[in-house]
Amino acid sequence: MSGLLSDEEIETALPSEWEHDNDEIVRIYDFDAYLPGVEFVSTVGEIAEDAFHHPEIILRYAEVEVRLTTHDAGGITKNDTDLAARFDEAY
């Protein structure tokens, strides 16, 4: 398990478009329609399963909200910021 990141470390490691929200990082991905969002959720799920690090994913009509935290550590770790970057690459 990775150690918790300080607020300064989070801000440095946080990919653009992501926000720091208490003990989570969050991003909303926008889509033109529902099905592209569904496909993205599937891709995110595969990436997360490969990393054995599972985000909260909220699917709406034209957007997907992703929230990451490391529950075992009680907050944000390098695993979260690394996975956020992988999701951005997939987007």
Automatic annotation (TrEMBL):
EC number in record: 4.2.1.96
CDD domains for the chain: PCD_DCoH
Catalysed reactions, semicolon-separated: (4aS,6R)-4a-hydroxy-L-erythro-5,6,7,8-tetrahydrobiopterin = (6R)-L-erythro-6,7-dihydrobiopterin + H2O
This protein's UniProt keywords: Lyase
The keyword ATP-binding is assigned to this record: no
A Pfam match: Pterin_4a
Top enzyme category: lyase
GO molecular function: 4-alpha-hydroxytetrahydrobiopterin dehydratase activity
PANTHER family: PTERIN-4-ALPHA-CARBINOLAMINE DEHYDRATASE (PTHR12599:SF0)
UniProt family annotation: Belongs to the pterin-4-alpha-carbinolamine dehydratase family.
Name used for this protein in its record: 4a-hydroxytetrahydrobiopterin dehydratase
Annotated source species: Haloquadratum walsbyi (strain DSM 16790 / HBSQ001)
